[in-house]
Design a protein that fits this description.
191 residues; 82% helix; elongated; mainly alpha; single chain
């Protein structure tokens, strides 16, 4: 990041030591050193204080770092979505496989355990959906492009919006068929 060099440069122009800057910014000298050596990044309050001390705008202070920060955030979000996908797949798999043994061998207690696990899985799936909505990714193409680090343009987004209803209906039908299959299998083993 460029902020560390920028802080050091502005501090030097004002003939200010790290100790003096630390005192004015209400932080330790070690904190100033960490910022200047890119070991840490100032929080928003510290950025505001630094911009006042150096008499520059926050935009000017963090010049060049904005795009790098956006890239870091985007990569973190991509990793988060990928991890959510793995976790949700694992939870759904466990949910399907555990139904029969729990109900057959533990009866009502097993059904209650399975129900609690089912509720937890659904809550997690809502969390994934919320994340997708916050990042404007809901169709399969939007998700795959997002995972590649790309965004769709306006025309492609409009086309994908038209597909959403069909994908939602298809997802609902598939979920219903899977649920029906699980119910039939449980009924078969419990008779």
């Amino acid at each position: 990041m460029e902020l560390g060099n920028h802080i050091k440069e502005l501090r030097s122009k004002m003939s200010m030591s790290q100790e003096v800057l630390a005192e004015k910014a209400y932080v330790s000298r070690q904190t100033i050193s960490s910022w200047e050596n890119d070991k840490s990044y100032p929080d928003v309050k510290s950025l505001m204080i630094l911009s006042e001390i150096f008499e520059v705008s926050i935009d000017e202070l963090v010049k060049g770092d904005i795009e790098k920060m956006k890239e870091i955030i985007r990569k973190e979000d991509q990793k988060k979505l990928q991890n959510y996908g793995y976790i949700l797949f694992g939870l759904m798999l466990i949910l399907m496989v555990s139904a029969i043994p729990l109900i057959k061998y533990l009866g009502l207690i097993g059904a209650c355990i399975w129900g609690v696990f089912f509720i937890g899985t659904m809550i997690f799936s809502f969390k994934v959906e919320k994340f997708k909505k916050e990042n404007s990714i809901s169709t399969y193409r939007e998700i795959t492009e997002y995972m590649k680090g790309n965004r769709l343009n306006e025309i492609e987004t409009a086309r994908e919006d038209g597909k959403k209803i069909y994908q939602q209906v298809l997802s609902g039908v598939i979920a219903g068929l899977i649920t029906l299959a699980i119910v039939l299998i449980i009924a078969y083993f419990l008779r």
